[in-house]
Amino acid sequence: MTAGMDFRSDNVASAAPEIVDAVVEAARTSATPYGGDPVTERLEPAFSALFETEVKVFPVVTGTAANALAVAALTPPWGVIYAARAAHVENDECGAPEFMTGGAKVTGIEERCGKIVPAALEAALAAAGAGEVHWSQPACLSLTQPTEMGQVYTPDELAALTGIARRHGLAVHMDGARFGNAVAACGASPAALTWRAGVDALSFGATKNGALAAEAIVLFETGRAADLAFRHKRAGQLLSKMRFVSAQLAAYVADGLWLRLAAQANGQARRLARGLEAVPGATLAAPVEANEIFVTLPRAVIEGLAEAGVLFYLWPETDPQATTIRLVTRHDTETGEVAALIETAQRLAAGAA
Ligand SMILES: Cc1ncc(COP(=O)(O)O)c(C=O)c1O
After folding, report:
1. Among 121, 186, 241, 251, which has the minimal tally of Cβ within 10 Å of its Cβ?
2. pLDDT tens digits, 261-316
3. 259-352 sits in which CATH class?
4. pLDDT one-digit tens code per residue, 104-115
5. Per-domain residue ranges for the chain?
6. Candidate of 61, 81, 175 to mutate for ligand 1, largest count of ligand atoms within 8 Å of Cβ
7. For ligand 1, atom 6, which residue shows the shortest CA distance?
8. Is the dihedral of CA 51, 57, 59, 63 positive or negative?
9. CA–CA separation, 6 vs 133, rounded Å?
């Protein structure tokens, strides 16, 4: 086995030294608990500058908490949250959005590579029974940026969907577990990809891109902050030693670190995609825009990769005979790791031919 061919997820990534150093620095002194410390207090000015508007920031320690609390800030217990069928809020959060909203309903909408099809959203809303007391009421649209298939919504695509949401009175949430990868990929500003495109609340991920465990709920619709403060506490996310989460977030956004790390991950994904495209029998199942690659390969090659020690997930993960695999690159993926995977796939494909 070639050492280190780990393409399972960006959750396996190391922590960036700048972020570890910031936590160590915050650990040197005592500080006011529950977010009353100077590091946490500097987060809102820093994020407001980054997003070019005044925002409220709630640090949390998982993406699930960020998503579930953010949608709860936007959705009443009788509401419907519309999301892509593949969305994390729909499939991977053990009902946390439903739980944190006090009973709202997540409804999956038709998608293409994770991007919600506007006509399908329109159709779902037209049939939603707004005002009908027997039915859950349309309340929120949740968009994942980049999508679960690594696709990046452009500002225009976002505006088209949020425009539909607005016309039907919905608030808009964005799951940005890999938001840095989206910004680094498309070059639009953080503002253009969020509030200027109609987003009210963002789950801003850092864990997958160099943090130890830190995400932020960024509220553009700041009027929701007072309620969210209580939800945040009730959900066990108001850490007494909040400064250690805040220190990660502060270091992450300082001097563009988050975008440098994301650009490294995206660059390795592009390199890997180019190499895999040249492998006989390989087809990319979706365009490679950020740091996730979905590639269809002969079964013999997939089995050979696993035997050679390459770590990856089948897509869908639940199908042991799947012919598509997901490969994720990280801020710390090395060029040698990518080259070794391409070389292994080439060799296996030549043997299978
Ligand atoms: C799109 C998306 N949203 C949110 C999350 C965050 O989830 P977690 O609660 O595991 O940090 C993930 C992690 O895999 C994800 O891929």
Report:
1. 241
2. 999 999 999 999 999 999 999 999 999 999 999 999 999 999 999 999 999 999 98
3. alpha beta
4. 999 999 999 999
5. 17-257, 259-352
6. 175
7. 63
8. negative
9. 51
